[in-house]
Specification:
The structure holds two protein chains of two kinds.
Chain A (H helix, E strand, L loop, with lengths): L3 E4 L2 E4 L5 E7 L6 E7 L5 E8 L5 E2 L8 E7 L2 E6 L8 E8 L9 E2 L3 E5 L1
Parallel strand pairs in A: 2-11
Antiparallel strand pairs in A: 1-3, 3-8, 4-5, 4-9, 5-6, 7-8, 9-10, 9-11
Chain B lengths: L2 E4 L3 E5 L4 E3 L1 E4 L6 E6 L5 E7 L5 E3 L5 E5 L4 E6 L8 E11 L2 E6 L3 E6 L1
Classes of the chains: A mainly beta, B mainly beta.
Chain lengths: ~120, ~120
């Protein structure tokens, strides 16, 4: 079945530094990838949608200059949290879909726990 | 606009007893609905999905859900809970946004299974 690998699974960084999170589709071509943020004991909030080769579309209230999304290939999307601050600490999850999966097919990565100290 | 409401933030059952996690949806169109499960610090796993075919949907691990249009509900059930079922469960509706379909998540229901 479709597999999405997300790396790293957890990261601790100092305030003011940048962190990159990778999301890879291992056995299918992901034309669309989604990035979510999840606060403790809360639901997933969509941050942005990225289509391969295009600029990401950000949800209202998400700072695109702070959360840089790149989807340069059909198997890789990255989320870079720039100048991270403690309030950026959260659980970030990506998901990927492709035409082959139909619009019902969304495969999620295992998530990245970011802690900014 | 589409939305989902999970009626219980926390459900506690004993091992071997039935599970019922409730979800109501609001949609202007025929919705696609999903149930996902999330174990602590893990990603999401698809349990089952409704995509306008059979209204009774069977998923993995013995879970099933019934789409009831008249009640705008998509409740998740399992006849007998297992300790490994303890997790967070999300009811999700698929929403068309521009050229993509996006998922809108309910707030989640934490299922606790007592021995």
């Amino acid at each position: 079945g479709a597999v999405v690998s997300q790396h790293p699974s957890w990261v601790i960084c100092k305030s003011g530094t940048s962190v990159k999170i990778e999301c890879r589709s291992l056995d299918f071509q992901a034309t669309t990838m989604f990035w979510y943020r999840q606060f403790p004991k809360q639901s997933l909030m969509l941050m942005a949608t990225s289509n391969e080769g295009s600029k990401a579309t950000y949800e209202q209230g998400v700072e695109k200059d702070k959360f840089l999304i790149n989807h340069a290939s059909l198997t890789l999307s990255t989320l870079t949290v720039t100048s991270a601050h403690p309030e950026d600490s959260s659980f970030y999850i990506c998901s990927a879909s492709s035409p082959g999966q139909g619009y019902y097919g969304y495969t999620f990565g295992s998530g990245t726990r970011l802690t900014v100290v | 606009a589409q939305s989902v409401t999970q009626l219980d933030s926390h459900v506690s059952v004993s091992e071997g007893t039935p599970v019922l996690l409730r979800c109501n949806y609001s949609s202007s169109y025929s919705p696609s609905l999903f149930w996902y499960v999330q174990h602590p610090n893990k990603g999401l796993q698809l349990l089952l999905k409704y995509t306008s075919a059979a209204t009774l949907v069977k998923g993995i691990n013995g879970f099933e859900a019934e789409f009831k249009k008249s009640e705008t509900s998509f409740h998740l059930t399992k006849p007998s809970a297992h300790m490994s079922d303890a997790a967070e469960y999300f009811c999700v509706v698929s929403v068309r946004g521009g050229s993509n379909y996006k998922l809108t998540f309910g707030k989640g229901t934490l299922l606790t299974v007592n021995p």
